[in-house]
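Retry 2 of 3 after timeout on previous attempt. Resubmitting structure tokens to design endpoint.
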């Protein structure tokens, strides 16, 4: 039994360094995500100012006003698919295909935020529990400096894991709302296009 316990302890301790390295990589990736999220936010604000009113006032009679309101460059996923929707053949199958593709690409964009939200606390907890063991050993043997060092690792892994998770969660919440609104707008434009075709 003692051999098994020592083997288990060795395996757990050997995971600490990979855990810390992965946590640091995820923290760096989450900082990059913050930058790209801010850029996406500013682009969305600009696009909403230019396009939202045109979509809100859209009807089969004034359909030509919408293409003029769209930015010239495809600066976001929504603008790209809105442009494709306006130039594509107007039939339900093709419209459903385009909107499904939009939802798939939106889900792909959300995958990093979802990963950070779930994996950050897990890796933080793993680092906390692994480093706690030598800290308790240091406490029992009177090695205060060793215990203090391990407690630093305990708190650092927990904090970094929670920060990574918080960044993932905040970006996920915002992006989910954005994409839900974009899907509604695409469906509305598609409905107007189909109504015009039937007239």
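Retry 2 succeeded. Sequence:
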């Amino acid at each position: 039994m003692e051999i098994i316990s020592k083997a288990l302890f060795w395996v757990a301790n050997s995971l600490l360094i990979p855990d810390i390295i992965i946590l640091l990589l995820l923290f760096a990736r989450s900082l990059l995500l913050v930058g790209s999220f801010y850029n996406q936010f500013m682009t969305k604000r600009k696009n909403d100012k230019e396009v939202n009113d045109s979509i809100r006032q859209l009807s089969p009679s004034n359909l030509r006003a919408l293409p003029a309101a769209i930015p010239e460059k495809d600066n976001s996923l929504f603008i790209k698919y809105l442009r494709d929707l306006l130039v594509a053949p107007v039939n339900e199958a093709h419209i459903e295909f385009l909107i499904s593709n939009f939802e798939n690409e939106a889900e792909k964009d959300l995958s990093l935020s979802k990963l950070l939200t779930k994996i950050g606390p897990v890796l933080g907890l793993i680092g906390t529990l692994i480093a706690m063991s030598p800290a308790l050993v240091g406490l029992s043997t009177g090695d205060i400096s060793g215990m203090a060092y391990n407690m630093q690792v305990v708190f650092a892994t927990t904090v970094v894991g929670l920060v990574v998770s918080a960044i993932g969660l905040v970006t996920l919440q915002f992006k989910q709302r954005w994409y839900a609104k974009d899907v509604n707008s695409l469906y509305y434009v598609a409905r107007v296009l189909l109504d015009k075709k039937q007239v």
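Attempt log closed. The radius of gyration is 25 Å.
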